[in-house]
Amino acid sequence: xxxxEIRDLHxxxxxxxxxxxxxxxxxxxxxxxxxxxxxxxxxxxxxTLAYSLAGHPKYTITSGTVTLDGEDVLEMSVDERxxxxxxxxxxxxxxxxxxxxxxxxRTSATAIRGEAPKLRTWVKEVKEAMERLxxxxxxxxxxxxxxxxxxxxxxxEILQLELLKPKVAILDETDSGLDVDALRVVSEGVNRxxxxxxxxxxxxxxxxxxxxxxxxxxxxxxxxxxxxxSGGAELADKxxxxxxxxxxxxxxxx
Amino acid sequence: xxxxxxxxxxxxxxxxxxxxxxxxxxxxMSAPPSFDVADFPVPHGREEEWRFTPLExxxxxHDGTAVATGSGLKVEVEAPEGVTVxxxxxxxARLGKAGTPxxxxxxxxxxxFEKASVVTVPKEKxxxxxxxxxxxxxxxxxxxxxxxxxxxxxxxxxxIDHTGDAVLAAxxxxxxxxxxxxxxxxIQDWDEKSVHVAQHNALVGRDASFKSVVVTFGGDLVxxxxxxxxxGTGGEAELFGLYFTDKGQHQExxxxxxxxxxxxxxxxxxxxxxxxxxxxxxxxxxxLIEAKAEGTDTYExxxxxVLTDGARVDSVxxxxxxxxxxxxxxxxxxxGRFDDEQLFYLMARGIQEHDxxxxxxxxxxxxxxxxxxxxxxxxxxxxxxEEELEAAVG
Lengths: 254, 394
Fold this sequence. Notes:
The complex is a heterodimer of chains A (254) and B (394).
Chain A: E1 3-15, E2 18-31, E3 35-39, H1 46-54, E4 59-68, E5 71-72, H2 78-84, E6 86-89, E7 96-100, H3 101-113, H4 119-132, E8 143-144, H5 150-164, E9 168-172, H6 180-195, E10 200-205, E11 218-223, E12 226-231, H7 234-242, H8 245-253
Parallel strand pairs in A: 3-10, 3-11, 6-9, 9-10
Antiparallel strand pairs in A: 1-2, 1-4, 4-5, 7-8, 11-12
Helix pairs in contact in A: 5-6
Chain B: E1 11-13, E2 16-18, H1 24-27, E3 73-78, E4 84-88, H2 104-112, E5 116-121, E6 131-150, E7 155-176, E8 181-188, E9 195-204, E10 209-216, E11 221-230, E12 236-245, E13 250-259, E14 265-274, E15 280-289, E16 297-306, E17 312-321, E18 328-337, H3 340-347, H4 353-369, H5 375-393
Parallel strand pairs in B: 1-17, 2-17, 5-6, 6-7, 7-8, 7-9, 8-10, 9-11, 10-12, 11-13, 12-14, 13-15, 14-16, 15-17, 16-18
Antiparallel strand pairs in B: 3-6, 4-5
Helix pairs in contact in B: 4-5
């Protein structure tokens, strides 16, 4: 069973000619089949955690370890991490001019699976996955994320999640900027992947709204660069009622 | 659309649509067209038509100090049967019929060439294989004049392939008879020191179709001036261009489509990729719809993909419309950047770095490469693009 283990992770970022520590000792274990929600106020370091795990060059790991099934993730390049089974659904997916969605999906599926998918089954697979996410077939011929609405970008991220079948999926504020209908479609997509039991999910969000659609097994409150409280789904209800205030105050005085 | 988003530092895109009684395309030039170099002042660099060009790298083509070396440029023409290939003197009546030099270097070329080459495809002759013209520089300075003339209803593909080391100023005339179809692929695959400045003049006959594909890879400085005029109604011109501008290279394409005749069409699409410090691409797209050119249908587009920091693009589409009685007129220009975020995004989907770059650049050029219609040239271009990318990554 695939396991992502994060131990005492410290991460810095360069800003305005100074080095700022964003993550200050994160400990978390995500196992295949589990869903962990990471919740926290803006600026608490949630997205930094997501991008650090994926290997974004902007972030420097100063100490700690991250392993996937015992393999050192921090030693891997960005593409190696993806091929090892990590997937990051991005909050702000970038436009890639000149590359069609269909070419992009096939190239990444080929990279992840280690061989080109058989054309006939692949076309069917993509078509069905797009239908499930209510993505218009004409999308396949558009350039990646070019001119996509916010909702289209997020559905495209979840389409990739469904096709690439990672061991651990990190969803970075996939719910932000979505209306209720789009949120439902996207959540259903995530749930289909979860129901396979093959994926560990790290759901990063600011709002409790998405947790009505995607039920987490664990909820972690993130503040000032670390997890300050962990619990079950009931912790989300507490946050819904009380907000982050108790944690941000605590964080400020700590 | 993602028009003009992600504009990198050092790149400009500007565009204008002018509706004017008087042509600003003409008045923006520092002198009226002329065959005589003496009619043009030596440029100082601030003139509208020279402001992007590094004059000091023109090797004297612009100020009269460049002198033909007599040898140093080899031209070989390979033509299928039925095509006439001639070398003629300066007084041949067919020279200069398609257009007049519009800047000092084109006039210098016209004033300085000794022998011209005239390739003629007789009327109604439809060629099955391309005419291939190999222009190979062997280290000299040369002034050239080339005429390609198609009789009525003739059809031909011409590939002009520039290689080697040269300092070359030239005029190339394309004369299309009524109903003729001409595709010209001009490849600038020069060695790194070469300087190439040329004006291409196409005169498109009634119901004739002209397709120009300009491909610029090599050279230290390449400045081309493809121009189209129509000799009768129903003419069509497609001007396609691809350039791959590397470290230190200056590649400038200045186009003019002069809709001087009613019911003609034009479509311009140029795409360039840039990489490396001081890579500089300039694209000027002038389209003029004269008052008498009712029923005109025109579109022009320029796209640039900046692969690394330190490269610069100047892209200026300019559409002048003197009549409202047209089918359509439009333009677009965008400069996008292949940046670290794109690389991260593609790599986060398991794609290796060099595959990610290749994917983007190949995709970017694909639609234009497919327009060429000459198999071996298409293959060579794809290989060349790969080679350029390998050089950048490695």
